[in-house]
Specification:
The protein is of the alpha+beta class. Helix content is 28%, strand content 25%. It contains 17 helices and 22 strands. β12 and β13 form a beta hairpin.
């Protein structure tokens, strides 16, 4: 039976008539899709197989859309990774352009825009047509062109072009990432109330140990806790620098923005920081300005007395407070205890220089110690030159020098220097001073 010329492309008739290659495939008529053409060509069966794995089979069989395919041969596709369907999809689409471009039009185009909106460069030398990209400067060669289909055209190529890496959506900052993750509403609200949101939206980098909503629920209602104490609690959960979970586990302690150290215990599971457990499931959450580790519990900061006890240079103060039985004033029993205080903490050398025996309970010792305690939390940013602070026993005058250094003048007119500022605790803030304040 004779075939009707009306359904067989003239180009294919000429190719068939002129070819001396007995193995040249005879392509079906224009009513055949790109996918079926590829399946029928012994050199393009791999392309058809990978198109199916990449979820492109329907598109290449769809007669309602027209596409030009630069189809790598079986040999060219031999080393392609077939395990990642998304990557395979991106790879094959990088070899396709919209519309039907004959080989002659390809030669004239010089630059082709793929359906992934990236560019392929065309170079022509005699009858040789090469395609290249910045990632494949050597390029690939068109070995056979103008294989027509009802929904486009195929040009065979002898290699695979490498698509550009997928665009990665920029990471949000710590606040944005925590918001998107969900489960941190209490933390985010507390940060906002404390005026710390902008800090964690800043450059950083920061490591945030982020208690979940469940962790705050387990801690108890913080709505009645003084705002300054809540701020101290929050800053105890933030570390300057980016520490992944492996670095945290390898550390003995981490230094927080509260100017205190939180001990790390990696001897068991889960790892604890400041006595609170890291989440087993949600660590190493990347942000543009740091990293987040979810916490199954809230880190409760140390009290002023605990900070002093952990500081070798404040051991005389610890002894003095114990001698004068003032511990309750700086060591609250509950989270929502009395209002926070500010303590100016003399060093051991300061007590020695003042000739004060911290082991003997006297009214003088009590009077001296209470001259170092101010109601309310005053961090260094709250102190101004000439400011008067009312201590539990007398008044103190703040002096701020041009370089920002702070000193305190006591009730007798003596001035001592602040040598360590803003140690934030559960019971307020500590400023270490190099002298004893005398009422």
């Amino acid at each position: 039976m004779m075939k009707r010329l009306s359904v067989l492309p003239l180009g294919l008739l000429l190719l068939s008539a002129c070819s001396s290659d007995a193995n040249r495939p005879v392509y079906p008529s224009y009513d055949t899709s790109i996918l079926e053409l590829a399946k029928a060509d012994s050199n393009l069966t791999k392309f058809a197989e990978l198109a199916d794995k990449a979820g492109l089979a329907d598109a290449l069989a769809n007669t309602q859309s027209v596409v030009t395919v630069f189809a790598p041969t079986n040999a060219a596709l031999a080393g392609v990774d077939e395990t990642d369907a998304d990557a395979l999809n991106a790879l094959l689409r990088f070899h396709m352009t919209g519309g039907t471009l004959t080989l002659n039009n390809v030669k004239l185009s010089r630059n082709l825009e793929t359906i992934t909106s990236t560019t392929i460069v065309v170079s022509v030398s005699g009858d040789t047509v090469k395609l290249s990209t910045s990632r494949d400067p050597a390029g690939v060669t068109v070995t056979e062109g103008d294989i027509r289909a009802i929904n486009g055209i195929i040009h065979k190529i002898d290699g695979v072009l490498t698509p550009p890496p997928p665009e990665v959506e920029p990471l949000g900052n710590i606040i944005e990432v925590a918001t998107d993750a969900g489960g941190f509403d209490t933390l985010l609200g507390a940060l906002d109330d404390a005026g710390l949101t902008s800090t964690l939206q800043g450059t950083g980098p920061f490591t945030v140990f982020a208690p979940t909503d469940a962790a705050f629920t387990a801690l108890g209602d913080i709505s009645g806790v003084d705002g300054a104490v809540v701020t101290n609690i929050l800053l105890t959960h933030v570390v300057s620098g980016k520490l992944d979970s492996a670095a945290v586990a390898a550390a003995a302690s981490v230094d927080t923005l509260a100017n205190t150290s939180a001990a790390v215990d990696a001897s068991g599971t889960p790892v604890t920081v400041g006595g609170a457990a890291l989440s087993a499931d949600t660590v190493d959450v990347e942000a543009s300005n740091g990293i987040i580790h979810a916490m199954d519990a809230v880190i409760v900061p140390p009290t002023i007395l605990e900070v002093a006890a952990a500081t070798a240079d404040l051991s005389s103060l610890v002894t003095a407070v114990g001698t004068a039985t003032l511990g309750a004033a700086v060591d609250p029993d509950t989270l929502a205890g009395d209002g926070p205080i500010t303590v100016f903490a003399p060093t051991n050398a300061a007590f020695t220089a003042a000739g004060i025996d911290v082991t003997v309970a006297t009214s003088t010792l009590t009077a001296v110690l209470t001259h170092h305690v101010v109601a309310g939390q005053y961090v260094s940013g709250d102190l101004t030159d000439g400011q008067t602070l009312t201590a539990a026993n007398g008044t103190l005058t703040v002096n701020v020098a041009g370089d920002g250094s702070v000193s305190i003048t006591d009730g007798q007119g003596n001035t001592v220097n602040v040598v360590g500022a803003d140690i934030r605790t559960l019971s307020g803030v500590v400023h270490v001073i190099d002298g004893v304040l005398l009422p």
